[in-house]
Amino acid sequence: MTAVPQPRVLTFRRSVRVARAAIVAFIVFNVVAVQLMFVAAGPGKNPPGTIGRLLGLYLALAMALQLLLVARLPVVDRAFGMDRLTVWHRWTGLAIFWLALAHPAFVVLGFARLDGIPILAETANLARQLPVLLGMIAAGLLMVIVALSVRAARRRLSYEAWHAIHLLLYVVVLLGVLHQVYEGTAFRVNPVTQVYWWGLWAFALGALIAGRLVVPMVRNSRHRLRVAAVVEESDDTVSVHITGRELEKLPARAGQFFLWRFPGHNRWWQVNPFSLSATPNGRSLRLTAKGVGATSAGLRDLPIGSRVYAEGPYGAFTAAHRTRGATVLIAGGIGVTPIRALLEDPDLTGHVVVLYRVREVRDAVLLGEMQNLADVRQARLHLLTGRTGGGHRPFAPEQLVALVPDITARDVYVCGPDAMTAAVLDSLRRLRVPPRQIHAERFHLAT
Question: Which long-range contacts (CB under 8 A, 24 or more apart) does 278-282 make?
Fold first, then answer.
């Protein structure tokens, strides 16, 4: 197989490479700038306090970068994809957590040595100062959020509850900024450091407000989305058809998702990521969801004509990221929704093989549509059923090769449950499918 020759795809790939290089350069520049700013401030006469000050600078930088990740800037989304950005968000969050522990620990240790008193006594003294107290509260809230985000706790929370808890991150950011205003010293060395530091934070906060508030409000005001129809696909799955104004100007593509809110049906902070289950046609949008949470389970009761608030589109799980002339689409369970949209997408040219994994045939949502689309575009559709275990491993390397002998020469799109996606990605690595040809979508979103 040869690389996809379409000029539009090649132009998109070049723009992605440029965007990635610019983003990496931005991160490197800020890391170097923080280090230079620390050096310019001088070492100080208190080693633990000096270390704490350096850790505080990197903590603030990590928080600013986290804001940029949460802002979901289109250029960053297109360059790396929401799935990869979500992983970075998780790792950045862990870095912030450990820095938020280490920074005050070294600062308190330094002051305790200078004052010659126990650490706990010094902690109590510092807590009487409002700027320090704000930082301590921020660190405490951060620990609560991280504790409730570990896998064991996360499994016990609904998506809606987890999302609501993560809204506390904005309180942490506010307290952190106030703490810097009163306590920051390294960026007050000269006017240049002050302009750089507050310029970085203005950019991060501005990007967050624009990306998460202004742009969604403008788009929703323009398109005025409403529920046009609710169709039951199975006992626990429904499709919601949505119409609006000037939808042809909405920059949505097959494979992408929105964050959906249904005012009047759910509380304003309850939001769910649902992929488009049909290629956008400029007249309507469709999402298909399985009733696993409070929001998705209640979609069948949405009144026709009710307002819809959508934030997005997000994700790089699109045909624009292809590198080869043929494609494999692998879906598991309700992960079939973006796969179904991609199968319909006219931009996904070349031969297509679809692997659809479900436990039983009756669990295969949208199977009829998938079969019709496969017939129209002369694609091969394999429905893989049965329980995984023992000798039945449908995504083992040898099974993938048996189903798709030329899989190493194709782009592979994967969307499904975590266990299935992990198994597929592991097999693709063992088959030495080049990473640039592998596209995966998971929904572990940041707030």
Answer: 278/254, 278/340, 278/341, 278/344, 279/253, 279/254, 279/341, 279/344, 279/345, 279/346, 280/247, 280/250, 280/252, 280/253, 280/254, 282/247, 282/248
Residue 42 CB contacts under 8 Å (≥ 6 apart), including other chains: none
> Which of 238, 241, 329 has the alpha carbon at shortest distance from 292?
238
Question: Which residue ranges form the domains of the chain, and what is each CATH number?
Answer: 7-215 (no CATH), 224-314 (2.40.30.10), 319-441 (3.40.50.80)
pLDDT at 447 over 50: no
Confidence (pTM): 0.80
Phi-psi label, residue 190: left if phi above 0, alpha if psi -120 to 50, beta otherwise: beta
Laid out side by side, the sheet with 226-234 consists of 226-234, 237-243, 284-290
Cα–Cα distance measured from residue 415 to residue 380, given in angstroms and rounded to the nearest whole number: 18
User: Quick one: tokens of 59?
Assistant: 């903590």
SS3 (DSSP) at 226:
strand
Asked if 182 and 135 count as a contact pair (C-beta separation under 8 A), the reply is: no
Separation CA 198–CA 200 (nearest Å)? 5
3-state SS class at 239: strand
Element (H or E) spanning 329, and its range? Answer: strand 327-332
What does the pLDDT look like over 316-346, one tens digit per residue?
Answer: 899 988 889 999 999 998 999 999 999 999 9
What token pair was written down for 240? 């919601």
Alpha carbon separation from 207 to 73, 169, 338 (Å, rounded): 7, 16, 28
User: Residue 418 to residues 29, 275, 351, 422, 441: CA-CA distances in angstroms?
Assistant: 35, 16, 27, 6, 10
Rounded to whole angstroms, how far apart are CA atoms 272 and 275? 10
Is residue 2 very low, low, confident or very high in pLDDT (cuts 50, 70, 90)?
very low
Contact 185, 205 (CB under 8 A): no
Residue 306, CB-side half-sphere exposure with 13 Å CA sphere? 19
Contact 295, 272 (CB under 8 A): yes
Using CA atoms, how far apart are residues 194 and 212, in angstroms rounded to an integer? 27
Determine whether 43 is exposed, middle or buried from the number of CB atoms within 10 Å of its CB (0-12, 13-18, 19+).
exposed
Give the three-class secondary structure for 274: strand
